[in-house]
Amino acid sequence: MGWGWAKQFPRRLLSEACGCFPNEGLPRAEVDATIHRRKQEIREEDPEYDVYWQPEEIVLGAGRVLAIYGTDPVGGEERFFLLDLRSDNGESFTAGELFYKLYRAAAAEVRSAYHCWFEGLELVTTMTTQEGSVPLYRVWLAN
To answer: Rounded to whole angstroms, how far apart are CA atoms 121 and 36?
Structure first.
């Protein structure tokens, strides 16, 4: 079978964007700038830290991705969500586009939850649809 699917659908995505979701309603440029600032702050504390945010890097060779996540609002019941995200070009996602679409779809729910620290996406499985194979990722959130 080979490993072509693994190359197209990486096991982990966006871990370099880790941190709290930015405030809701920001334009993409401000979201990217927030991640860049966070990385710079880490580098100031640890000069050997060499993880950089590259929002224009193509990170997923698919025009559609499903993402599942759960939230646990303080004082509320845990809730689960399934996102169906589509890239602008229909073929692939850059890191910036994927994170921004995830942020736009999930920020309101995630920011009000106890676990609101974004740690990245992890591949769960590949779904077969009429459009072909669609990766399903879990959104990793911590506190």
So the answer is: 19
Residues 95-136 pLDDT 10s = 999 999 998 888 777 766 666 678 899 999 999 888 888 999
Beta strands 93-94; 58-60: pairing state = antiparallel
CA atoms within 13 A on the CB side of 6: 4
The pTM of the full predicted model, rounded to 2 decimals, is: 0.84
Q: Give me 97's structure tokens.
A: 């586009």
Query: Do residues 79 and 71 make contact, with C-beta atoms less than 8 angstroms apart?
Result: yes
Distances (CA, A) of 124 to 27, 66, 67, 76: 29, 10, 9, 27
Cα separation, 99 vs 121, whole angstroms: 10
